Inverse folding.
């Protein structure tokens, strides 16, 4: 009789201890969740799916009191942007918030006519002037219309851009007579803040419905910003095709009353107005004894702007060809925000044949772009069949081996 009694007593104590331990763990988890502050990131909402492309440690830029904010303003540049993350619920979704709308219809059910009416009220005189100053050729060539919305959340100091859709895009694939469109958006004048939508396959009327939220932007700074939308078509086998662009200066656009629905005609990409693609200074030396070619990329000057955002971030890619087949490639470091870059980088190539008759070398000056494929600013080819200064330079290094010969060359279109 004593053994069952002892077992029962121990079982009761064990049950009480387990229940107490479980309750204590639950309380600890609840208190830790209530005290936890979310990380501060850039928020991208894609049809209910949360995507976080960056992790930026900028807690102090959001949620600070007025005193801390005044201190940070002196240390922070005027045009610097800081990205952050909204709070999510326990299921990982964003809580739905009701925002004050300037128009009664929702963004989902808005018609093109409604977008056009809102545009008349919200466009600044400068932007209207730029639209009406398009040439007759650009007006005849229809590139479609981009629909989007702008909003500013004063409570969270967040600037919100929703890329809704594009309509009437031209077909970039001649075989299927369709396109694979996507959109890159840049907040100017800071070139580094770039986002892009997903690629939608085989459509001329893509419905993106993607929301990009930028935290830590003061409302007073909104007037100094410009939105640049680049509409592209994805190409699996080569560089993506540029359909057109939309440039939206935010000066004069009022966002204090709630979400603003807008639409703009997509125009042809602005062609850089410059006398050339710039110049590149290179030095070459052929060592006949070791059968090697030494290439020094020295300088670049007068490089054109890569886009409307400002200066390029150039670097040089060097390709060595033997009988029109690339056998080696190298590249320099990136030089930030300059049209006159100094590289001073040396590369040594092993030549697989005797002499330089079947050898040619290609220099590609590119603009570094973290958000998409790097754009070719200019190209230079040196070889026996090259024309102009490229052919003359090649002839000299063949006639005078073991001598380092440097020359400036004009870059041609990429």
């Amino acid at each position: 009789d004593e053994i069952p009694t002892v077992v029962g007593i121990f079982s009761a104590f064990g049950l009480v201890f387990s229940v107490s331990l479980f309750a204590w763990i639950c309380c600890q988890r609840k208190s830790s969740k209530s005290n936890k502050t979310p990380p501060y990131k850039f928020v991208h909402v894609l049809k209910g799916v949360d995507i976080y492309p960056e992790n930026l440690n900028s807690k102090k830029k959001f949620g600070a009191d007025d005193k801390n904010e005044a201190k940070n303003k002196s240390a922070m540049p005027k045009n610097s942007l800081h990205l952050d993350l909204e709070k999510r619920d326990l299921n990982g979704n964003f809580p739905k918030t009701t925002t004050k709308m300037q128009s009664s219809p929702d963004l989902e059910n808005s018609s093109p006519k409604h977008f056009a009416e809102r545009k008349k009220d919200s466009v600044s005189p400068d932007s209207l002037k730029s639209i009406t100053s398009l040439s007759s050729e650009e007006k005849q060539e229809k590139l479609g219309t981009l629909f989007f919305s702008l909003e500013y959340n004063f409570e969270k100091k967040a600037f919100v851009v929703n890329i809704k859709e594009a309509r009437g895009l031209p077909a970039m694939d001649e075989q299927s007579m369709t396109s694979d469109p996507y959109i890159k958006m840049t907040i100017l004048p800071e070139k580094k803040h770039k986002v892009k939508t997903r690629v939608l396959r085989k459509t001329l009327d893509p419905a993106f419905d993607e929301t990009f939220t930028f935290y830590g932007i003061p409302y007073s700074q909104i007037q100094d910003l410009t939105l640049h939308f680049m509409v592209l078509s994805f190409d699996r086998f080569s560089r993506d095709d540029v359909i057109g662009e939309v440039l939206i200066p935010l000066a004069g656009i009022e966002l204090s009353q709630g979400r603003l629905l807008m639409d703009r005609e997509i125009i042809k990409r602005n062609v850089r107005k410059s006398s050339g693609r710039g110049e590149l200074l290179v030095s070459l030396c052929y060592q006949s004894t070791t059968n090697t070619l030494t290439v020094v990329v020295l300088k670049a000057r007068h490089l054109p702007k890569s886009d409307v955002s400002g200066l390029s971030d150039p670097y040089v890619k060097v390709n060595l060809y033997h009988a029109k087949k690339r056998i080696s490639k190298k590249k320099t470091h990136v030089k930030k925000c300059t049209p006159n870059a100094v590289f001073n980088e040396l590369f040594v190539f092993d030549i697989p044949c005797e002499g330089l008759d079947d050898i040619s070398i290609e220099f590609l000056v590119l603009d570094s772009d973290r958000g998409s494929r790097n754009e070719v600013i200019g190209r230079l080819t040196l070889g026996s069949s090259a024309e102009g200064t490229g052919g003359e330079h090649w002839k000299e290094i063949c006639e005078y081996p073991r001598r380092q010969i440097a020359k400036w060359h004009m870059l041609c279109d990429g």
Notes: Residues 318 and 363 are 5 Å apart (CA to CA). Residues 278-411 form a domain with the Immunoglobulin-like fold (CATH 2.60.40.150). The mean pLDDT is 75. The helical segments are 2-35, 66-75, 112-122, 125-132, 136-140, 219-222, 389-399.
